[in-house]
Model the fold of this input.
Amino acid sequence: MSDKKSEHFDLIVVGSGPGGYVAAIRAAQLGLTAACIEKDELGGVCLNIGCIPTKALLSSALLVSEMAGAHKHGIIAKDVSFDLGPAQARSRQVAAQMAKGIAHLFKKNKVTHLRGVGRLKGRGKIELETEGGSKTVYEAKNIILATGSRPRDLPVLKIDEDRIWSSTGALMQEKAPESLFIVGAGAIGMEFADVYNAYGSKVTVVEAMDRILPLEDAEVSSFMERLYKKRGMEIHTEARFKKAKTNKHGVSVTFEDSKGDEQTLEVDYVLSAVGRVPNSEDIGLDSVNAKVDEHGFVLVDRHLSTNVTGLYAIGDVAGHQLLAHKASHEGITCVEHIAGLGHGTVDYDNVPNCTYCHPEVASVGLTELQAKEMGYDIEVGKFPWAAIGRAVASGHSDGFIKVIRDKQFSEILGAHIVGPHATELIAEFVVGRHLESTVEELEKAMHPHPTLSEGVAESALASLGRPIHI
Amino acid sequence: MVTKVHMEALSPTMEEGQLVQWLKSEGEEVSSGDILAEIETDKATMELVARGDGILRKIFLDAGGVSAVGSVIAVIASADEDISGIEEGSDGDGAQQALPAELSPETIQEPEVETTSEVSATTQGTGSVKASPLARRLAAEMGVDLSAIKGSGPGGRVVKRDLEGATTASSTGAVTTMWASDENEYEDVPTSQMRKSIAKRLVTSIGPVPTFYLTVEVDMNRVIEARESMNTMLEDDGYRISVNDIVLKAVAAALRQHPNCNAQWHENFVRRFNAVHLGVAVAIDEGLITPVIRDAHAKGIMQIASEVRELAGRARTKKLMPDEYTGSTFSVSNLGMFGIQEFTAIINPPEAGILAVGSIEESAVVVNGEVKVCPRMRITMSCDHRVIDGAQGARFLATLKSMLEEPTAILL
Done:
C-alpha cells in the first residue's frame, strides 16, 4: 500500500490464463495489491489458442452441417460452398475481443500487468524478463504460479505447426485440407475432427485407448463413435501410432491397428492431440526448492500451497483435471486462503467435463463403470432426446441423457449428456450435486415446457424407474 | 492495510478459545504467516497465524482470557493507520472506516460468513434443521438425530460429510460428542510446586520436551494366533486385521488403565484424558501425518482396522479434514513393515507419549529353562518426563505387554 507500488506487491500471479487472471482480480477485490505477469496476450491458452477460438470454429462447423438440412426450413441455397478462411478469421477476432476484455478488467480492478517472462528468484522474488531482454526483480508476499500447460510432443510425432500441428496449428488454418490425420481422440482431438469433417476434410482418428472420448461414460463413447463413422470419419481405437514422415506433398503416417496390423496412410496434415504437459521447467522452481511430481506438475496441498511458504500453484501446472473452470476455481480458493478468508477447498469430484463437438458431450461425477467399481449399488436412468418435444422441434434430437444414482440414498453419482446444449445442461447436475440434492429433488423441481431441461427431470425419473415420456 | 486478528475456529468444534500466550507483543512488527499466539481450543493448543503484515498495534485479549470464535482479539496495521474505531469483539462499522477505500462493504462481510460456517446446525423457528436433502436421507436411514449433528456447510448446514463419520461412528466432531456424552472428555490435575520444579529443571536440561525412552520386548505368539483366527472369521466379509490394528487396540485399552500416560503438560496442570484418541503415524510422499482414531478405547478391532485404512488412504491423497489429524491424546508409530527392529519416536506435542513399534522377529528365548524360538516384537515408548515418570511409563508398558501376550485381557 505504499508509493513503491510498482516494486512490491501483496500478490504476483505468473500467467494470465483462466486461473491466473481470475486469481489476480479476486485478490484485487479483497484489497490486495496484485500484479499479473504475462508474456503474450492476456487470457492464456484458453482465450487465445484454446477454448474460445475453438468454440468459434465449432459454431461455424455447426452452421455448415445445418446447411444439409436447410431445404427443410425453406432455405433454397444453390451452389453452396464452404470456406474455412473467414471462419478462422472470425475465430481470431473473437479471441482478440475476449483478450481485450481481460485488459479492461485488470484496469478496472487495478491489477498491474507486467509484460514479460516471470521466473522465481528465491522466496518471494520474481524476475521479470521483458521482450527487450531487460530484467527487473519484483517482490511479493505471495506468488501464485499459473503458468499452465502446453501440448505434449511425442518423440515419434514432432510438432512443427507446418505439416504436424498441435491444437495451435489446427486453429490457424485458412483452408481445410483434403485429408487430416488426428492422433488422440480426447476432447481436443474430437473437436477438431468435428470442425475439419464439417469443412470437408477426410478425417482419420487414431486412439490408443479402446474408445474415443475415453474419459466419458462408455455408452457416450460408443454413441459418438457410431455417429462420427456415419459422417464419414475413419476411427481406429486401440491403435498404436508408430511414425510420421513429412514429404513434399504431405505426411506419411504409420500406425498399428487393433488387430496388430500396420497401416500406412498418405495424408496432407497431422494433428497431435495426445494430452498436455505442465509449464514448470523454466519458472525458477529450483531457486526455492519447490517440489514437482514425476510428471512435472507442481505439488500443492488442499489450499494450493506448495511446499514453500508464500508460493502457490493453480490450474494446469498444478495438475488434477486440466480444465479452465477448475483453474479459475483454484485461483479464487487460493486467493481467499491467502487473504485469510477461511479454509475453502476445491471439490475435485464435482468438476464438469465438456466436449463441444456435435452433438455436445458433457458429464459430471462417476461413470457407470466407476460407480460399480467403487461398490455402489446403482440405478441407471437413460432418456433419449427423441422423446423431448423441444429437441425434436429444433431438429437436434440425437443422443441421450443418463443419470446414475445410488440406490439406497438416491445421491446423484454421475450424469452424462450427449445432445443439444449438453454443456449448458450439465450445470444443473453440478449445482444439484454441490447442494447434495438427491435425484428426487431434480425430478420434483418444475422444469419449463417445452425445453431441453425437461430431459434432466425425465432422466431423474428414469433412474427411479418412472419416466413419463418413454 | 488494517488486519483485524480474529479468534479463529482452529478446530471444527471450537466455539471459544483461551489465549495461552502471545508470542508477539504490542508494537512488534509481524508478517503474514508469523505465529502470533497460542490458543487453547477444546481439543488442543493451536497456533494463531497472522493474516496480514504490519505492526501488532493493539492486543485486546490477554493471556488466560477467553474469547468467542470470530471476535476481534488484536489489530495489525502500519504505524500511522487509524485503528481507533476497532474494539475488542467488534467487527462492525468502526472497523470498516479504517479499512482501505477499495474494500467494498460486501468484501468486509465475507470473513463473517466464514466464521459462522462452523456453527452447529441452526434450527429455524419450528425446530427444523438446515441439512442437505442427501444428509436428510442418510440421517433417516441411520436413525441419527440431525439436530445433534454439527453442520460444516454454509451457515451450519448439515451435509453428507458430517454424517459419514456417523456411519462408521468415526472421526467427525459431531459423532465424537455422541460417543462421549456421558463421560467427561478429560480431567485437569493441578500441578504441584514439586511437579513444576521437576518440569522446569528437566526442560533446562534437555529441551522443550524432556523425553526419556522405555523399551520392552513382547512375545507375539498369541497376537499372531488371534489375528489368524480373526481373519479366518472375517474372510467372507473381505476384512483383514493387521498386527498393528491389534497393537492399537491394546494401546488404547492399556491407556484407559493408565490415564497418567494419556495426558498433556499444561504448565499449571496436567490434562489427563478419559477418552483415548489415538494418533496413527502414516507415511506420505511429502513426510508424514498422524490421522486420529477417535475414542479408540470404545471401538472394536475391526472398526479400528477399517478406520485406519480409510484415514490412511485419504491421508495419502491429502484429503484429510483438519479435525481428522488433530486432537490425538497419544500416538503410535510402526516401522515394523520396514524391518526396523527397534527405534525411538519423537513425541507429537502436546501429547506426553508415543509408542514406537518394531518388526516381529523370530528369536531364541529361554522359556522354563528351555531354548525356544518365539516371534518377538520390541516396543519403545517415548515419555514426556514432565508428565510421566519412569515408573509410571514402565507400569503402562507392563500392562500393554501383558495384553499383547494374552490378548483376551484386552477384552477385560
About this structure: Chain B has ten helices and 21 strands. The interface with chain A takes residues 1, 3, 31-33, 51-53, 78, 99-100, 102-104, 107, 110-111, 114-115, 117, 132-135, 137-138, 141, 159-160, 285-286, 318-319, 322 of chain B (CB under 8 Å). Confidence is low (pLDDT under 50) at residues 92-127, 167-183 of chain B.
